[in-house]
């Protein structure tokens, strides 16, 4: 640590949701229930897709990977937040803080690219249906998923390589329930203007460009759907509306936080909770409640478990 962290700061103080002791216990119970719902809900989707041959298609292969990423995204910091509700002093080591930043950007960056891959899959399925089987083959799906993870890892390394060597000499209070990059670099005992610009050009532009590319692709798809008969495109509209909802809920908070790293707004903490805790739970709900194939497969899986 002394080689990377050229300062006297060995830990950071996390400023989680404040309130009385009774309110802290309520937060503990509430977020514990939420976290368990995220893990169980997304793992159930993953198990359903693996166990049902009907769902062995590119769309559900990508959806199952999204569920796995959602579990990872909610796990890198939420258990720490839940544990801190029972603690009077909420601290995290320097190494733990850097690890949180690394895994946040791995999982968030990977999810951004995976959502782009899912939009590409829907584009090919709706706009080029006759070529879908040839284009979205098993090899292409694996390349898209592996590429999403590699993009997340490279993106995270590019963020962390500058941050880990910053001098921190106090204050050491992070105004969030986890170590978020824009908040941590503001604590450095040096001018971080250039680093914030680099962060804007990396995380901020990555989020905005991905979001606008998704909007363009979904617009093209919706125009294509509009030109076809209502009877033949009802399922496509339902799938697209689910995709667009997930994209908006995920990218909205990310863009707000990382596209304006110079701001210091209290709402940033709430947005961080939203896209690391609430969105991973909404994803399985949105996809399962609007997808008859997934619901049917879940019922069959549950029936097999009960009968056995």
UniProtKB/TrEMBL annotation:
Q: Where are the transmembrane segments?
A: 25-47, 59-78, 98-120, 141-162, 205-226, 238-260, 272-289
- Domain annotation G-protein coupled receptors family 1 profile: ranges: 41-287
SUPFAM superfamilies according to UniProt: Family A G protein-coupled receptor-like (SSF81321)
Gene3D superfamilies on file: Rhodopsin 7-helix transmembrane proteins
User: Which InterPro entries does the record match to this protein?
Assistant: GPCR_Rhodpsn, GPCR_Rhodpsn_7TM, Olfact_rcpt, Olfactory_Receptors
Q: How does it sit in the membrane?
A: Multi-pass membrane protein
Query: What keywords tag this UniProt record?
Result: Cell membrane, Disulfide bond, G-protein coupled receptor, Membrane, Olfaction, Receptor, Sensory transduction, Transducer, Transmembrane, Transmembrane helix
Q: Origin, by domain of life? A: Eukaryota
Localization recorded for this chain is: Cell membrane
Principal cellular location given in the protein's record? membrane
* Pfam families registered for this protein in UniProt: 7tm_4
List cellular component terms (GO).
plasma membrane
User: Which GO terms of the molecular function aspect are on file?
Assistant: G protein-coupled receptor activity; olfactory receptor activity
The keyword S-adenosyl-L-methionine is annotated on this UniProt entry: no
Q: Which family does it belong to?
A: Belongs to the G-protein coupled receptor 1 family.
**What protein am I looking at?**
Olfactory receptor
Q: Organism source for this protein?
A: Sciurus carolinensis (Eastern gray squirrel)
